[in-house]
Amino acid sequence: MVVPKHKLHCTLSTGLTQIAMELIVFDYKKSINYSDFSTSQIAVIWDFYVTKSVAASASQRRTASDYGLKQIPFSKMLEVAEIEEGQCRILLADKMPATLKSLNLSIAGEKGIAIPIEVDTPRFSLLMGYSISDEEIPKPKDNCSKAECLLTHIRNAFAHGNTYFFDNGNVLLEDKNKSITTAMILIKQKTLLDWIKLIDHEERFYRIVNAEIESEE
Predict the structure, then answer these.
(1) Contact 117, 22 (CB under 8 A)
(2) Bridge partners of 21?
(3) Cα(85)–Cα(151) distance, integer angstroms
(4) Nearest residue to 137 (alpha-carbon basis) of 182, 178, 92, 76
(5) Is beta strand 88-91 parallel, antiparallel or unpaired with respect to 123-127?
(6) How far apart are the C-alpha atoms of 43 and 40, rounded to whole Å?
(7) Are 41 and 33 in contact (CB under 8 A)?
(8) 93-133, pLDDT tens digit by residue?
């Protein structure tokens, strides 16, 4: 049977067959304004991840201390998002084509030909800015933390409109520097709200009563 826009493949787990979906993601590229989030949820997400992001490039930047934290709890973010340790990479590198391919996050091949990827399993791969001197090993630039790196790439993805919202409730956030892919982040759409609740744990700025997506349609 031919299924338009996507294909299915099976994986075996504990004797049961699980169906995972592969999609050409370009068919799902759209602004958060056309997602299933409510207007109020979009406003909160944009304020947290873009306008007042922890990214150094944000003109109204917040820091961990603004949320009453010594540091943003990266490990807890992974736990909340149900991202397994083997499903995330943060690289001190200039590019990462092999890593994207190994995580099934490479969405285009030679000459821009679209490649379908599996969109059910949360995972990500990021490039982190680094500095290096003499024969030293590379180190994160400006002491950037893993959480700050992740949130910076999310900011850029939203700001540049590189967002893909899927029918299964997941979202792919892509960041690029010219032709170089610097981040591919596949998470549940709900995770965007869960991370705000986790970081703004004292509700200093936001109050998310229900972290479920509340479509107004």
Answers:
(1) yes
(2) 8
(3) 18
(4) 92
(5) parallel
(6) 5
(7) no
(8) 999 999 999 999 999 998 889 999 999 999 999 999 999 88
State how far the Cα of 44 lies from the Cα of 46, in Å rounded to an integer: 6
Six-digit token string for 101:
């391919």
Question: Please, what sign has the CA dihedral across residues 142, 144, 149, 152?
Answer: negative
Closest CA to 199 of 103, 33, 99, 72: 72
Tell me which H or E stretch contains 21.
strand 16-23
Residue 122 pairs with which residues in a beta bridge? none
Whether 217 and 34 have beta carbons less than 8 Å apart is answered as: no
Length of the chain: 217
Segments in the chain below pLDDT 50: 1-17, 215-217
pLDDT at 20: 74
Q: Where do the structural domains in the chain lie, given as residue ranges?
A: 30-199
Q: Tokens 């970081």, residue?
A: 199
Q: Check: CB of residue 67 under 8 Å from CB of residue 80.
A: no
Structural tokens at position 57:
């490039």
pLDDT number for residue 111: 84
Identify which of 153, 188, 172 has the alpha carbon closest to the alpha carbon of residue 28: 172
Distance of alpha carbon 92 from alpha carbon 192, whole angstroms: 25
Residue 155: in which H helix or E strand, if any? Answer: helix 146-159
Measured CA to CA, the distance from residue 138 to residue 122 in angstroms comes to 28
Amino acid at 35: S
Residue 12: in which H helix or E strand, if any?
strand 6-13
